[in-house]
Known about the structure:
- By secondary structure, this protein is mainly α.
- Helix content is 40%, strand content 8%.
- It starts with a strand and ends in a 40-residue tail after the last helix.
Amino acid sequence: MNAELTCPAEEGIEAAQARKTRSYCDITDAARVRGWTAETVTIEAGARGFVARTLPHFLKRLGRCPKNINSDCKTISSIAARCTYTIYLARESIVWDAKRELLTEEFAPTATPNPESRGQTRANNNQVQ
């Protein structure tokens, strides 16, 4: 089984699912030709935290119990939304601090991009570091 997680904007979930299914069609077919049991499963969690029904279905197929599936979906929803917010906060930065931790829920309201890169925007600094 090939599972592909995508985090599109919520309004683009269906298109993302179709695009991912098409992109893995050749590899799935090639595996089947060789006699393997092959399947591509797309999993979508929206960038603003919406979890598509493909995610709980996938977790159920993996053998997760309903209580854990609900908890997993809430966690994944929160992670997707926090990552989107982190990217939004850094939208003016030309440098991404790879060592910076992603937002935690307790720090989300006051989080800012890397302070060392503050003020370094594309508008006032055309150099990419």
